[in-house]
Design brief:
By secondary structure, this protein is an alpha/beta fold. It has a single domain (1-470), classed as Amidase signature (AS) domain (Amidase signature (AS) enzymes). Helix content is 37%, strand content 14%. It has helices at 10-18, 24-42, 50-65, 108-116, 158-165, 182-188, 222-232, 275-290, 306-321, 323-329, 335-344, 349-369, 407-416, 445-457, and strands at 45-48, 77-81, 119-124, 144-145, 148-152, 171-176, 191-194, 214-219, 262-265, 294-297, 375-379, 420-427, 433-440. The strands form two sheets. An eleven-stranded mixed sheet has the order 1-3-2-6-8-7-12-13-11-9-10, with helices on both faces. It has a two-stranded antiparallel ribbon with strand order 4-5. It is globular and about 60 Å long.
Length: 470
């Protein structure tokens, strides 16, 4: 049984709380009850913050009663990936190594959420330290997909995607190094957005690969994504990659008028896409064309080595970050993660630098492409979420396979720091969600969000419920 208001998006839930038609305490209690009821099926959480959440909800209700409403997240129950440091609350990264670590500081994202009055009710499960694409590589066990609990939720931010899909709060924050927001969003049938590199500070979040890590957001509507971005975006001198920027106002600038937008489809890289996914994507393209977009085909040959370039970069940087722990406690890593780190340590400096030259060539090719187009669109993933029993190979995007490969399309946005959004675009014959990704040029975040909004306003795929709700 689910409370009706848990079906509400962030905008509506916020209005109910701000007008005191619904108390934050009631919303938080319902979200926690929902969490406890289905968590045995999902395993989406590592830490649940019952006591802290109830106290914060009471404080929010008291402030709102005094007329001190802080904004759209005030009093709203949300969740965060267990990659973000939380003062006084254990932060594990889904690893045995930090099983009992309790930091004495908050990550940038957590600071901003506290300032906005959001109520963090739990920290979500993931692949260990973000090293994976399935959310099965966790010391705490695999995350299960709300649409079919025998399927993966995607990774590494699978717990966050599953929580939003299962109506455990309207908003969740995750991280992405290779596709860790967009992939689980597609597999779980929610919206996932990764902004331009540097828009949201990474201070206080674990590093997967320092030159590719991003903070991302999950929600069921594009407007909610924009509201969540407004709260957390902004310059932070503690993150060397943080960029100077105007005060965030993405939500107020949302505009579904996308007539004349130039949208490009990298057709050669769609080879091997499942027929159901291709059919859903073609229908989504038709919707964008009806909204006024100009659709054209595009081939960027340099993308054919994006996956390998991303993988090599991530492997080398991850090995550097984890070198001490690996030397002293390698037996405590999840075995598949340990093997990946061991591989990263075999990459030489000359190999890493050669890979960065390839990265530069890909970046230059994309810069030239974006002089002629506004967005690149493709299926987010070439197939729906595979069974947990297939393990990490079930994703079907082994970067060691050369030539045209859909994993190139998943990985290049994070590798180059481009804004990307996955939106639900269909349901497969076996009742699993499918997604379309929209990739913009650097700092064209508003264009990406506007296009996602325009598509979502013409479809209702984002309103479909997973099996856990049926």
């Amino acid at each position: 049984m689910i409370h009706d208001f848990l079906e509400a998006d962030l905008t509506d839930l916020s209005w109910l709380i701000s007008t005191r038609e619904l108390s934050s305490a009631e919303a938080v209690t319902a979200a926690l009850e929902r969490l406890r009821a289905i968590e045995p099926e999902l395993n989406a959480f590592i830490t649940v913050l019952d006591e802290q959440a109830h106290a914060a909800a009471k404080a929010a209700d008291d402030e709102i009663a005094r007329g001190q409403h802080r904004g759209p997240l005030h009093g709203v129950p949300i969740t965060i990936k267990d990659m973000f440091a939380t003062a006084g609350v254990r932060t594990t990264g889904a690893s045995k190594i930090l099983l009992d670590w309790v930091p004495d500081f908050d990550a940038h994202v957590v600071e901003r959420l506290h300032t906005a009055g959001a109520i963090i009710i739990g920290k979500t499960n993931l692949d260990e330290f973000g090293h994976g694409g399935t959310s099965t590589l966790s010391h705490f066990g695999p995350v299960h997909n709300p649409w079919n609990t025998e399927r993966i939720a995607g990774g590494s931010s699978g717990g966050s995607a599953a929580a939003v899909a299962a109506r455990i709060g309207p908003l969740s924050y995750g991280t992405e190094t290779g596709s860790s927001v967009r992939r689980p969003a597609s597999y779980c049938g929610v919206v996932g957005f990764k902004p331009t590199f540097g828009i949201i500070s990474r201070y206080g979040s674990f590093r997967g690969a320092w030159s590719q890590d991003h903070v991302g957001i999950f929600a069921r509507s594009v407007k909610d994504i924009a509201l969540g971005l407004d709260v957390t975006a902004g310059y932070d001198g503690r993150d060397p990659s943080s960029v100077q920027q105007d005060s965030p106002s993405y939500a107020s600038h949302l505009d579904g008028n996308i007539k004349g937008l130039r949208v490009a489809v990298p057709r050669p890289f769609l080879e091997g896409t499942d027929s159901a996914v291709k059919e859903a994507f073609d229908a989504a393209l038709k919707t964008l064309a009806e909204a006024g977009c100009v659709i054209e085909d595009l081939d960027i040959p340099e993308l054919s080595y994006a996956a390998m370039t991303s993988m090599m970069t991530s492997a080398a940087e991850s090995a550097g970050i984890n070198r001490r722990w690996f030397r002293e406690r390698h037996q405590d890593f999840v075995p598949h993660v340990a093997r990946g780190l061991a591989f990263g340590m075999t990459i030489t400096a000359s190999e890493y630098l050669t890979v960065q030259r390839a990265r530069h060539r890909i970046r230059q090719a994309l810069r030239q492409a974006y002089e002629k187009i506004d967005l690149i669109v493709s299926p987010t993933t070439p197939r729906v979420a595979p069974p947990i029993s297939e393990g990490v190979k079930g994703n079907g995007d082994d970067t060691r396979h050369v030539s045209y490969n859909h994993s190139n399309l998943l990985r290049f946005p994070s590798m180059l720091g481009l804004p990307g959004c996955s939106v639900p675009c269909g349901i497969s014959p076996d009742k699993m969600p499918m997604g379309m990704q929209l990739i913009g040029a650097w700092f064209a975040d508003q264009t990406v969000l506007n296009t996602a909004l325009a598509y979502q306003s013409r479809t209702d795929w984002h309103r479909q419920k997973p099996a856990v709700d049926r």
